Amino acid sequence: MQTAHWHYLEAAPKATGQLKVEMADFQVIEKLGYEPTGQGEHIYLWVRKAGLNTAFLAEQIAKFARVSARDVTYAGRKDKYAITEQWFSVHKPGKAEFDWTALNVEGAEVLKAIRHDKKLRTGVLKGNRFCITIRNLLNTADIEQRLNRVAEKGVPNYYGAQRFGDSRYDARGGNLVLAEKMLDGEEIRNRNKRSMAISALRSWLFNEFVSRRIADGLFTQTLAGDVMLLAGSASFFCAQQIDEVIGQRINSRDIQLSVPLWGQGELASQLAALEYESTIASDYPTVTTALEKLGLKQERRALRLLPENMSWQLTDDQLVLNFELPAGAFATSVVREIVDIQQHYEVD
């Protein structure tokens, strides 16, 4: 299961650069989408962290608050080698309060604590704001043109390299290696590793669908029976007839083309789109069968990723990128279309 062959929207970028040379080169700020009420059984913590794994920090918060690990939740995992601001919630009924400045975890600072009546659940985020610095740029002749094109047309909505795991020991990423072992019948006993392997497998197949549509000239071209996602919603509909109205709604970003996130059940597409997606799926019978047996359900994900409020500062050897993405999208997929990253600097 390889990853290097996934197509770019046009040609591969000529510019090269380095990402995460310094911790501050990758900054993320969560956009929750609602305000905590100030009362309730759950304490919401707005935390700035640097060089910390999200799950590890959640464990440390649980120990500090003397609650079970399951009573501390977060909306999404954030990069370890980065400076991020995100929400955690602690289920603590009653009136107990804490001096969160005493949370002695190097690299973490609680900026705000406020109660809410519901726990923070995975995936409830509206999105994330990114500030990314790429250093040691070379061959930048076309980079401004690429930046403008990405701001206008977006990028393929690939799952990023983080989904496929640590690639220091295998170019495909550690989670994909685990996924291959799982496909070969090996049992993965560790729940977290098994979950990551399943997620990597499903994401890999999604990326295959995206890449095939690009290769076949169907990234913006619509097929009869394609499934359209409504902007800002999980709702979708099947466009059995492609007309001017559908084209206008796509251009206005009111709806988006989608491709399958594989699982049990029938594909939502119909007509020519159903035939096309079924043909692609037939090339990966082992993967599709495994995902179905795991109990995952057929879902849809947008084909295109559209950065919002995108701006940049470009010098001879450095690019600073600012943009917002919806929850579940990968900033590295935006960077991929602009600069060929030669090396990610990571720490254990």
TrEMBL record:
GO biological process: tRNA pseudouridine synthesis
Reaction equations catalysed: uridine(13) in tRNA = pseudouridine(13) in tRNA
EC number: 5.4.99.27
Isomerase is among the record's keywords: yes
Residue intervals of the TRUD domain: 154-305
InterPro entries per the UniProt record, alphabetical: PsdUridine_synth_cat_dom_sf, PsdUridine_synth_TruD, PsdUridine_synth_TruD_CS, PsdUridine_synth_TruD_insert, TruD_catalytic, TruD_insert_sf, TruD_pseudoU_synthase
One cellular component term from this protein's GO annotations in UniProt: cytosol
First-tier enzyme category under EC: isomerase
Catalytic residues (positions): 79
Keyword set, alphabetical order: Isomerase, tRNA processing
Function text: Responsible for synthesis of pseudouridine from uracil-13 in transfer RNAs.
Species of the source: Paraglaciecola hydrolytica
GO MF assignments: RNA binding; tRNA pseudouridine(13) synthase activity
Gene: truD
Protein name: tRNA pseudouridine synthase D
Key word DNA-binding present: no
Family: Belongs to the pseudouridine synthase TruD family.
